[in-house]
């Protein structure tokens, strides 16, 4: 099985956890989300369950990194 067998393209958007649960017909805990932040000017990447609340894990002031900036880091 190659990578092409594992890639799923949806007709509907799956850009948010809510939209992905509808597209996959599953619960939010079945979705994985990736969040990129700057914490004390250092980039961090969080990989979490779709129903996780990130603010409880960091405990410091954060700033979301947008996709364009993340590509250049």
Cα-atom Rg, whole angstroms? Answer: 15 Å
* Helix count from the secondary structure assignment: 3
Percent of residues in β-strands: 25-35%
* CATH superfamily caption: YbaK/aminoacyl-tRNA synthetase-associated domain
**Unreliably modeled segments:** none
Order of helices and strands: HEEHEH
- CATH classification, class level: Alpha Beta
Q: How would you write the strand order of the largest sheet? A: 2-1-3
Which structural class is indicated by helix and strand composition? alpha+beta
Count of spatially separate domains: 1
The quaternary organization reads as single chain
- Main pleated sheet: 3 strands, antiparallel
Query: What is the name of the CATH topology?
Result: YbaK protein
Q: Calculate the terminal CA-CA distance, rounded to whole Å.
A: 32 Å
Given the C-alpha coordinates, what overall shape results?
elongated
CATH architecture, by name, is Alpha-Beta Complex
Q: For the residues shown, what is the average pLDDT?
A: 76
| Overall helicity | 10-25%
